[in-house]
Write a structure and sequence with these properties.
Blueprint (H helix, E strand, L loop, with lengths): L2 H38 L9 E3 L4 E10 L13 E13 L2 E10 L2 E5 L9 E6 L2 E11 L4 E3 L2 E14 L3 E2 L5 E2 L2 E13 L4 E15 L2 H4 L18 E17 L2
Antiparallel strand pairs: 1-8, 2-3, 2-14, 3-4, 4-7, 5-6, 7-9, 9-12, 10-11, 12-13, 13-14
Length: about 250
């Protein structure tokens, strides 16, 4: 498989992942409230599958996998392990405010757009990332659990910063990047104060490519990106899957 074919496949997988996540979010929002209301009808409070959540704050520690996306150019973050922590507080009703901080052990390739195809790509090199974000979470069961489960969706914004910023040959800059983060997950109540969490997130990152990626100064080599097919920007989907343990409390 050629580099271009591989990058195109990566882009298609990223696009498919975005559509799958969007479909999951839309389906849960549309279906869950109806199921939640019907589940409450006809249940005696003592035998109801719903239990009140009486805590308003929570601290979560979790780990998992950052699946990354090498992007159309092939220099984006590769898959790697991820660890994180989150503080959340109840705003009102089903709404929570989150503050998350994550570290990702990743790698990436380095491309010199003026070198021959056989030697233009080097690496991978270390590309550790720090990601901080703020999100608004919507609890689909409100301030209750259903059979111990509390599914949720969220929308967040944040910043991704490599621990070592650098400029590659050709002018590509591996530096901080803003990210938009939709997510879907659920909590499983283990006790009144301890819950397990499972979450699927998507870090949407926009890359900006230097002129040399589309128009190399060496006319004897093909461009990294075909200027007839690509422009100087690329939006990528970077999925993350995590498991965590959450401690719930009240200030």
């Amino acid at each position: 498989m050629s580099n271009e074919t591989g990058r195109r496949a990566d882009g298609q997988r990223a696009s498919t992942a975005c559509r799958v996540l969007a479909t999951m979010l839309t389906t849960l929002v549309a279906v869950w409230p109806a199921g939640r209301l019907s589940a409450q009808v006809g249940h005696d409070p003592a035998t109801s599958p719903f239990r009140d959540v009486n805590t308003r704050q929570a601290l979560t520690f979790y780990g998992g996998r950052f699946f990354g996306n090498e992007s159309e150019a092939g220099v984006g973050a590769m898959p790697g392990p991820m660890i994180a922590a989150r503080f959340q507080t109840r705003l009102s009703g089903p709404l929570d405010l989150w503050f998350s901080f994550a570290g990702v052990n990743s790698q990436r390739l380095v491309i010199n757009p003026d070198s021959p195809l056989t030697s233009r790509t080097t690496g991978p090199i270390n590309y550790d990332l720090v990601i901080a974000d703020m999100a608004l979470g919507f609890n689909l069961t409100g301030m209750k659990t259903w059979h111990g489960l509390a599914p949720y969706i969220s929308i967040g914004f944040g910043i991704e910063v490599p621990t070592q910023e650098r400029t590659d040959p050709g002018g590509y800059q591996a530096h901080q990047n803003f990210t938009f983060i939709p997510s879907i997950g659920t909590r499983l109540e283990l006790s009144r104060s301890i819950t397990a969490t499972f979450e699927l997130r998507d870090y949407l990152l926009r890359y900006e490519w230097p002129y040399a990626y589309l128009h190399p100064s060496n006319p004897a080599v093909p461009p990294v990106l075909d200027p007839l097919k690509y422009d100087d920007k690329d939006l990528t989907s970077n999925l993350g899957l995590t498991l965590g343990l959450q401690y719930r409390f009240n200030f």
